[in-house]
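ASSEMBLY PREDICTION REQUEST
Request ID: AP-0331
Submitted by: J.K., bench scientist
Number of chains: two
Total residues: 912
Priority: normal
Notes: Please return the full assembly, not individual chains.
Input sequences:
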Amino acid sequence: MDPLIFGFLLSDGLISGALYALVALALVLVFAVTRVILIPMGEWVVFAPLTQAVLLEGRLPGTVWLSAGLLLVWAVLDRRRGRTPLLLALAAALVVAAGYLGLAVPALAPLVAILVVLPLGPANFRLFFEPLPGATVLVYLILAVGLHFVYKGLGLAFFGPEQFGLPALLPGEASVFGLPVPRQGVLMVVAAGALMAALYLFFARSLFGKALRAAAVNRIGARLSGISVREAGRVAFLLATGIGALAGVLVAPLSNASYEMGFLLGLKGFVAAIVAGLSSYPLAVAGGVLVGVLESFSSFFASAYKEAIVFALLLPVLAWRSVSSLALEEEE
Amino acid sequence: MIALALVLLLALPWVLPPFYQTLFVFYAIAALVVLGLYLLTGLAGLTSFGQAAFMGVAGYTSALLALRVGVSPWVGLFAGLAVTFVFALLLGLLTVRLKGHYLPLATIAWQVALYIVMGSWVALTGGRTGLSDLPAVAVFGLELRDPRYFHYLAWGLLLLYALALYRLVHSRHGRMIRALRGDAVAAASFGARPPELKLWTFVIAALGAGIAGWLYVHFVRFVNPSPFSLEASIFYLIMAVVGGVGSFPGAFLGAGLLTGLEQWLKDLVPLVLGKSGNYEVIAYGLILVGILHLAPRGLWPWVEARLPRRTPPPPEGEGLAPRAEPLPEGPLLVVEDLTKSFGGLLAVNGLSFAVRRGEILGLIGPNGAGKSTTFNLLAGVLRPDRGRIVFREREITGRYPFETVRLGLVRTFQHPHLFPEMTVLENAMLGTYPRTHAPMLASMLGLDANEERRAAAEAYRALVRVGLAEKAFLKAGALSLGEQRKLEVARALAADPVLLLLDEPAAGLRAGEKRALAELIRRLREEGITVLLVDHDMELVMHLVDRVVVMHYGEKIAEGPPEAVQRDPAVLEAYLGGAA
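STATUS: Completed
Returned structure:
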């Protein structure tokens, strides 16, 4: 194969791999802490660049009102909890103000878009998942599927069916090992790496990160040591939405964005998360990169089957895990 | 009630408007898939995202055979099911040995990959445009083109599948499938092979979807990939969960409700909002979320809790045939040089002892002596590093519990491993699993009725023996700890034990309950059952057993009658720390 083509495919794969890795990280985080397989994650990832695009067109996107509205509902639900409702109402006002700021100052639009999407995660957790503590993974999953439908429909209502092109945050091309690569792509990979490093520090070093890990490993034990599992769930959702929204804003200038891209994107992140057994963060990153590279190369060699090849990747992974596991294990 | 429903079902196509005639056919097709999920997800606890792909496999097989080879759709049905069977078997073999989330994940992969192949292999499948002009199904020369006739085909096949499934669920296999989900170790201790049962469950569910797929393509007489997508698979899962994933009527409820809801929303939402678009999707999602918040376990359990309950009569008649082979003259169980370590910790070290026929042997020792490890080695849950275990003159070292239980080596659990959602009688009937033989197919065809009756009678007799008969039809979750221990024993008795392994049966019991338990164990010995008892309740052990083996730090330090052992200086040293 032509080394130039190889280089292009590899860099392309690494860039989308960075996206899948981030989505996979977010999914693993949410699943570990709350046992929710967050299907609407993909929708939220594309909501961020779509919000940005509508702002740049000079309109106020529906996500602003959605986000503020959900925060207000949350405030009403938590009305007896001291200062919480006040803070939530303030956050709602902040989201609306940020929306108008994004209209006035287009340069801030990407940041505003992330800020607008950010409350969706924790608010949805509070509204839909918290009222059912201790439900089975399956019930949470179906709930998540219901929300996926809702957000897919809302996406069409807010943004319409068309694709949006977005201006690069870093225009132009850089030369990497003699290969011309869009600067935006380099930014994506570097930002993903930085974000992972920050997450690592957060989980390894900070007390709050450790508390989250504790809540993921043993709920009862965490509760006995004074960690609120609900709080942990909200934070996990917040982090996940943040990671997803950032990834969406970074990658959209390279690939355009439309409301219906979310689901498949989420699924591929999910494939990467599965490679990691839904539990290991480093493996989730590796899985994301693997999915990205595999997709890039198979779109070159067998374009019609590229998604099939990505999903078929799971079968050898599962076969390997099947062979290396015991037939009968005590589960006490 | 059932007769009324059947009459209604027969009359329906002639009283409904055409729109609803078609809707009812789709209802039957959906119910076939959802019933499979009831077995797979609701009972066995395995979630599948690939049921629509199985529909596609059978549907495309039949369509291609009809169009390219020109065979009848009936041949296509069998060919389609055969191909579905092979795919399900392969996919199942890959995943049933894994725990937790791997089956759902494997099915997603299979679903997405197959969907893309259906859409992209244009030369074979016609791609996304699909294949049209499929032949209609003919019955005795009558072509079923009208939904009013097709209604009978679809509902007929559905009811046959439902009947087979219902029988399976209420057979020895069904009880074990339900048990497997809660607790694979307990299921294996009573003769089930967990991977095998899971595999067949998966295959049976896939075949239901296969029938549905075949019905679908020959009803619309056109096939393209879209009804076999991941979204479709998820829809079926939603139906199952909304109806109540662990309940038989729930499958019908969920399939009917959501098939209707989808259609109604398509018509209703534009009417209410004055515009169409994706608003019905939003409404659908919100209704789904709402239902789960109202009834997290699904609609049928919610309804059922509001219906009156009736108690069936106690089972009567002859029980199962007792064990025929004679027992050996020598010791029943011989343990030689048994050794097991966990990392650096030597839990059991060179342990040897024998259990004589008809005695109650106590295995005691202070905490950490290695009693539980020894018990688990005997029960086949752990494998020894060294040494031999010989039971009834057969070497059983390292054999699985589902093998040894058939020889009559039956255990109870210290923390009761019962199934709270099943009745007390059903829990006890789990014990009869290794003594009954009807294969799955026989159960599905209803050929196991006689054996089932005898198994129920046998289990009921075991409940009478332990004094739980009057609670036979309560859910096991409603029993007190003492009663749960009795049920543990009853389940073991139903397996016709030669040697009963009791794991700390007295732990957590009140004094009165302990006395009753001791009484029960003595009575069992008189009935000819040999008992190996692991406990550290000295009073119970010393008053009950014929001989004791005392362990300390993984080794045997004394063996003999209780009175002698109580005076043994090594034992006093171990228990009282040098007071001797």
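REVIEWER COMMENTS: Chain B touches chain A through 52 residues (CB under 8 Å).
SIGN-OFF: pending second reviewer
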